[in-house]
Structures are given as structure tokens and as C-alpha cells.
Amino acid sequence: MMIAVFEEIHSQEFFSYAYVCVVYRFMITLLDAHISIKKERFEPLSDDIISYINQHVVQHCQNCFSFNYDFNFFILQPNAEWKAEKSNRFHSLDDARILMGARREEPELRKKRRPTVDHNDWNVEIPSSFDSRKKWPRCKSIATIHDQSRCGSCWVVDLVGDGGFLGPAWDYWVEEGIVTGSSKENHTGCQPYPFPKCEHHAKGKYPACGKKIYKTPRCKKTCQKSYKIPYAQDKHRGKLSYNVADNELSIQKEIMKYGPVEATFTVYEDFLNYKSGIYKHITGEPVGGHAIRIIGWGVEKNTPYWLIANSWNEDWGENDISEYYVVMMNVASNPR
Question: Into which CATH architecture does domain 2-16+24-332 fall?
Fold first, then answer.
């Protein structure tokens, strides 16, 4: 279970991109003030950083969060904090960096490459909660949890394209198109994902990831032999690609009208020690950019949140689902 509070995430640190189907909670910040935290330096993944985080949490949090048994999600309370613990997933910073493949477009470049939509002309009442899984129950990929394996392809399994930039990837879908696929285990479609689901330093239902780092495969313009549809005929394209204005109302309208969106955020060293509760950056340096997917929002005890999904297989968090508490988001590159 992952829950996060991001205090002071500016547009250059937090970009969101539209996507078709997802699962995971992303919290909306409504705090009028935040606690000023002295950023001490500790060895990542060490007992010292874990002890510091937990001591800091105790100082600033009492009865911070509750549990929603209907969805297996922790619910954020005002001033809520989180618990750190030794993680089986990461044995070193290199383990984490391998999974951080998301990169950001410069804001001005994003605006230049594609138009920005705010949906101000759509006069609709925004419900207090919205879940794309319930709105589009026949879209099975909304509830699908991906596993990027030992590869920094978080942004790829959440959309399409190459190079780590989410916006140009959506543009690629519109201009060039992509073929069908699935996980390596299902092995269906034209080009299934080439890397297997695996366990990162923990026992589970999948094989161990091992030490091999998977690199981006070369582009192939052929389908797997068992697939009967030719590559060119199997391509699917979006109608157009555009940015969504960086305000909650525009993002909510976008999700209600066209479906889930995608986001990237900066992962810090303390996040690697996350165990439970509501994550808020306390200490540590940036590790890299990571992409996640957003499917809706809700409110629990006057606390609004976004619902989001990760790509580290079902063993991460509660079936790879969590809640985040954030300051602002930018949604962009929505293909239709």
C-alpha cells in the first residue's frame, strides 16, 4: 500500500498525461500550510534513514490514517504521515534507478507541440467520486496491473512510444500508430511485452528478476508468428493529441469524458523505504522520474484524492494500488 503527500511539487516536477485505462489513487492537496522539514542527509536504504523517517512521523502524526476495507486503500487524514521499513524490492539505488525511465518535456515545448484543452465549454457537475473501472466495466485494461520487470519502461507500459518522453509518445500513437500486445505471460496480440513479470528481492508468485537489466528492444515491423493479422493492418491510431490544462477541474472533466490519464512524478530516496501510510517527502535526494496512471478521484472524510495505478506488479503495495496527496498536476498529450 502506498500513500503519498507531495508538498511543493511544481509544474517542472510533476507532469500528468492522459491515458485510456488505469488503477491507482492520487491525492489532491488542500493543506493551507505545511510543516517546514529540515532535509537531513542519510545513506539511502539504511537503518538510519528509516529511523529518522519514523521518528519524524511520530512527532507530527497521531491517529493519522484509517483503512478502507472495501478497496484495501489507506485514507489520508489532515497532517497524515507514513511508516518506513526495510524494503525487499530495493537492495541498492541502482535497483531503483533501473525502474525510473520517465522524462519530461519542457513546458513551453509541450505547449508548442500540441494544443491545450481546458474543457471550460463543457458545463457539467463534477461528482464527489469517480472510478473509470465502474464507468467503463467492459474495458478490462483499466483494472490491469502491469509489471515493467527489470526495465525503466514505466512510461511505456502506461502508454506507447520510445525515449522516455510521455508527450511525444502520445504524438507517435497518433502519427504512426501502434500494434496490439499483452504481457509476456499472456503472449497475445501482435507484439507482447518482451520482458517477464518478476520478483524484486522478495519471494512471490513470479520468478526472481535476477541481475540482468533489460534494454529497449529494437523496433520490429513484424508480428509474432502465431498472430494472423499483418503488422500494418494491426496498427491502431489516436485521432489527435493535446495537452490538458493544469487544474483539477479540467483534469476531472477530461477523465469523465474520455477516460483515465497518466502522470509522472519525482521519486526521492526516502520513498524507497516506504511501507504504509501517507507518503510525504521527508529526506533524501531525487532518484528519478516515474510514470503512473490515474483513473478517477474521490473524497474520504473531507479529504479528496486521485485514484492511481503503478507498474511494479500486484505484489507492490495493495495490488499495486495507492493514494497520493499532491499540490498540482499537468495533464497532457491526450490521444483521441
Answer: Alpha-Beta Complex (3.90)
Closest CA to 297 of 334, 244, 248: 248
pLDDT tens per residue across span 183-216: 888 889 999 988 887 776 666 777 777 777 777 7
The domain locations on the chain are 2-16+24-332
More confident residue, 171 or 262: 171
Find, among 179, 169, 176, 177, the residue nearest to 113 by Cα.
Answer: 169
CA distances for 98 relative to 88, 141, 165, angstroms: 15, 25, 16
CA dihedral angle for residue 6, residue 8, residue 14, residue 20, rounded to 10 degrees: 50
Cβ–Cβ under 8 Å, residues 82 and 323: no
CA distance 235 to 238: 10
Q: How far apart are CA 26 and CA 275, in angstroms?
A: 17
**Catalytic status, residue 290:** yes
- Only one residue has cell 501502434, namely 178
Question: Please, are residues 258 and 294 in contact by the beta-carbon 8 Å criterion?
Answer: no
pTM of the model: 0.64
Question: Alpha-carbon distance 9 to 319, whole Å?
Answer: 26
From the candidates 21, 151, 154, 223, which is the catalytic residue?
Answer: 154
The radius of gyration computed from the CA coordinates of the chain, to the nearest angstrom, equals: 19
pLDDT digits (tens, 9 = 90+) for 79-113: 446 778 877 777 788 878 887 877 777 788 888 88
Cα distance between residue 214 and residue 152, in whole Å: 8
209 among known catalytic residues:
no
What DSSP element (H or E) covers 133?
helix 132-135
Q: Which of 54, 243, 273, 310 is catalytic?
A: 310
CA-CA-CA-CA torsion sign (105, 110, 113, 114): positive
Catalytic residue, from 290, 319, 330, 334: name it: 290
Which grid cell sits at 130? Answer: 469517480
Task: Give me the phi and psi of 291, to 5 degrees please.
Answer: -105, 135
198 catalytically annotated: no
